[in-house]
User: What shape does this take?
Amino acid sequence: MAAAYMHIGIPVTNRKPGMTYNEAMKFWVSNVDDYDFKIEYLKFEEGTPFPEILHRNPHVAYSVDNLEHYIEDADQVICGPMEAGPGARLAFVIKDGAIIELYEQK
Assistant: This one.
């Protein structure tokens, strides 16, 4: 199995410059390449399907080669797996007390 660091996700209450809106999922997101250290800022709107724990806590994202393996190894699944674009899926889990985003691109 292989996992590669992608970014750290930090929820915010005010939009940052350059954020884009995901209308289907009702949240604002920054481009990780706009910030040193690969930071993704997130602002969730009312009605977003993402659970409250993600609105209030940071997460670390990894690109993985086998989403199911990492989900099975998690202590808890927060949400997902879900489609994240053509050939891509993601899930949020808790492992060893940390919130982790798992991203798989086929």
Notes: Strands lie at 3-11, 20-22, 27-29, 39-44, 59-64, 76-83, 88-95, 98-105. The chain has one domain: 3-105. The chain is about 10% helix and 50% strand. The longest strand covers residues 3-11.
